[in-house]
Write a structure and sequence with these properties.
Largest sheet: 7 strands, parallel
Order of helices and strands: EHEEHEHEEHEEHEEHEEHEHHEHH
Low-confidence stretches: 267-274
Shape: globular
CATH superfamily of one domain: NAD(P)-binding Rossmann-like Domain
Strand content: 15-25%
CATH class of one domain: Alpha Beta
Distance between the termini: 50 Å
Number of helices: 11
Number of strands: 14
Radius of gyration: 19 Å
Helix content: 25-40%
CATH topology of one domain: Rossmann fold
Oligomer: single chain
Length: about 325
């Protein structure tokens, strides 16, 4: 299947993954329509694409945005690990309520195909670091550390349980890296902070990394080939945090960290940070959620996406190089 000029609404197009999804849709011959809260949020990378002004938490803005759309790719999400007062309510409104509202509005608009961008964070991981697949979804949101993962688990269940003629497919990116992580995401913040000298040691954990450009292409393949009700992991290489920081050091021409931070030490620091932040009514500098996540290495396999969608993971080393070039501190001229 080719795009054949089909209109596809993309939510979250101003975000890191969303911009690469919209770009991949355009290259595949679709007509991406970007749902944004204001035109100022449209990345320069997507200049010239059709824009629809709207918000997932304002249901009345969705029917005009969806009019005439053949497909929807839903990438919008509130992705934060450090939450301040009132942030949890907003996260649930966007990630869970917004997904429910969009699914219903898309079905009423006659959309044929709907791709929901979830995360491998909805899977059950253990301290042993086993490699997980799509079959390892957490049994309940309460099994997951932190509000973000729990909200994405709930949103994914809504997408997978949606009934009607509209075909819904779920994709689960691992940890995307590459160009365009300007805000940045929590992962981008790790890269930025390491390059700025603020991370002198590696946490004793692991994660799966993937080129964000390949994640964008994976969404298009899921739109075209994904089985209704199926979920597809989009991930590439399983690395320890030490290996990631060593590779970043090599790319930036700086020394690699020589020490590891054990999880118990990270937990202690996070408890202190959370207590101090609560007293000042601010988001913590070291979120307890992030440390709890680090206690369970997030290793995955993308075999289903490779075999059923024909997806390939891209060039991770090149993607890391692009991230380093963008996120490294700028020297004064």
């Amino acid at each position: 299947m080719s795009g054949e000029g089909r209109p596809v609404l993309v939510t979250g197009a101003s975000g890191f993954v969303g911009r690469w999804v919209a770009s991949a849709l355009g290259l595949a011959g679709y007509q991406p329509r970007l749902l944004v809260r204001s035109t100022a949020r449209v990345p320069a990378q997507l200049a010239g694409m059709e824009v629809a002004i709207g918000d997932l938490t304002s249901p009345g803005t969705l029917p005009p945005a969806l009019e005439g759309c053949w497909g929807v790719v839903h990438c919008a999400a509130d992705y934060r690990l450090a939450l301040g007062p009132g942030d949890l309510r907003r996260m649930l409104e966007v990630n869970v309520g917004g997904t429910a509202t969009l699914l219903q509005a898309a079905a009423r608009a006659g959309v044929a195909r709907f791709v929901h961008c979830s995360t491998v964070g909805t899977l059950h991981f253990s301290r042993a670091g086993e490699v997980r697949s799509e079959l390892d979804l957490a049994r309940d949101a309460s099994d997951l550390p932190g509000a973000y993962k729990r909200s994405k688990w709930a949103a994914q269940k809504l997408a997978e349980g949606f009934s009607g003629p509209m075909q819904v497919v779920v994709v689960q990116p691992s940890t995307p890296v590459g160009a365009g992580d300007s805000r940045p995401t929590p992962t981008g913040a790790i890269i930025r902070d390491f390059l700025a000298g603020r991370i002198p040691a590696a946490t004793d954990t692991g994660l799966n990394l993937v080129d964000v450009r390949a994640v964008g292409r994976g969404h298009v393949l899921a739109l075209e080939k994904g089985g209704p009700g199926r979920r597809y992991i989009l991930g590439d290489q399983n690395w320890t945090m030490g290996r990631l920081l060593a590779e970043l050091a090599r790319l930036a021409g700086r020394p690699a960290p020589r020490f590891r931070i054990p999880i118990w030490m990270g937990l202690a620091a996070a408890v202190v940070s959370e207590g101090s932040a609560a007293a000042r009514r601010r988001a913590p500098g070291i979120p307890l959620t992030a440390v709890r996540m680090a206690a369970r290495p997030m290793y995955v396999t993308a075999g289903r996406a490779r075999s059923e969608l024909g997806w390939t993971p891209g060039d991770l080393n090149e993607a890391l190089g692009l991230a380093v070039a963008e996120l490294a501190p700028q020297e004064d001229s």
